[in-house]
């Protein structure tokens, strides 16, 4: 009893292996490029999240600026070169307190040496004791700017701008701007 079996010939197997090897090499060359693109996209997204989070923090303080549950005196928003100081009655006692720092109603934000910094109880933009809001080993803040736009008959509008780039990859950068209304001013 003879069994008639047929399979692939040696030539067919070699051709299939050659085609498979070419496809595998093409995929292997494409994979690092894909991984690089994913890494760049992830870094851009992390930078965007970091900058927008800082923008919204500063904006929230500007929205609260000027609030007082009594008769507070003085300027509620002080804008200097790459420095912002904001006052609002956080403990609802009717007074804007400057000291002690732990209970102060003044919060400052400034750009110094590529980092956005904050200080509760900031009486001066050049004072000591500021805390970094951004990590200069991860990202460099190139610009921090707050502009006040007074509109007749309306509350002032503030435009907060932050520009930054990654320290490890300067080509990954972001310029972000956010506008907010100072309802209590």
Protein architecture, described:
The protein has 185 residues and is α+β, with helices and mostly antiparallel strands. It has one domain. Helices cover 30% and strands 29% of the residues. It has 1 helix and 8 strands. The strands form 2 sheets. Strands 1-2-3-4-5 form a 5-stranded antiparallel sheet, covered by helices on one side. The protein has a 3-stranded antiparallel sheet with strand order 6-7-8, covered by helices on one side. The N and C termini lie far apart (103 Å). The model has no long low-confidence stretch (mean pLDDT 91).
Characterize the biggest β-sheet: 5 strands, antiparallel
Give the tally of β-strands.
Answer: 8
Tally the structural domains.
1
Supply the helix-strand structural class.
Answer: alpha+beta
Radius of gyration: 29 Å
Question: Number of DSSP helices?
Answer: 1
What oligomerization state is this entry in? single chain
């Amino acid at each position: 009893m003879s069994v008639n079996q047929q399979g692939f010939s040696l030539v067919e197997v070699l051709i299939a292996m050659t085609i498979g090897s070419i496809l595998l090499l093409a995929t292997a060359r494409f994979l690092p490029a894909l991984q690089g693109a994913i890494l760049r996209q992830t870094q851009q997204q992390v930078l965007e999240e970091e900058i927008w989070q800082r923008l919204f923090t500063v904006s929230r303080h500007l929205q609260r600026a000027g609030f007082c549950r009594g008769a507070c005196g003085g300027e509620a928003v002080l804008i200097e070169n790459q420095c912002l100081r904001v006052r609002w009655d956080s403990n609802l006692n009717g007074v804007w307190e400057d000291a002690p720092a732990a209970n102060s109603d003044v919060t400052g934000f400034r750009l110094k040496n590529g980092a956005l910094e904050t200080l509760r109880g900031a009486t001066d933009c050049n004072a000591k004791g500021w805390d970094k809001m951004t990590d200069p080993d991860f990202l460099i803040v190139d610009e921090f700017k707050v502009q006040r736009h007074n509109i007749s008959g309306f509350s002032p509008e503030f435009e907060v701008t932050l520009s930054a780039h990654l320290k490890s990859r300067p080509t990954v950068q972001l310029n972000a701007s956010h506008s907010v209304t100072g309802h209590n001013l």
